[in-house]
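Its record is quoted verbatim for completeness.
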Amino acid sequence: MAKYKVLQKFVNLETNEEYEEGQEVELTVKRADEAIANLEKWDGSFLERIDNAKKEDNEEGE
């Protein structure tokens, strides 16, 4: 599972769960990719992966 930050409000059609802007959620990378692909028809980005960004920052600081 990976952590994502919700950038715009949307409903996960698989779970029927509503995600609010600013919320942090855990999704599989596969499910996040599916959601991103389904949401492409709408304007803007909906999910931003946040767990790997933190790892990259830590590696650069070492």
About this structure: The longest strand covers residues 2-6. DSSP finds two helices and five strands in the chain. Residues 15 and 31 are 11 Å apart (CA to CA).
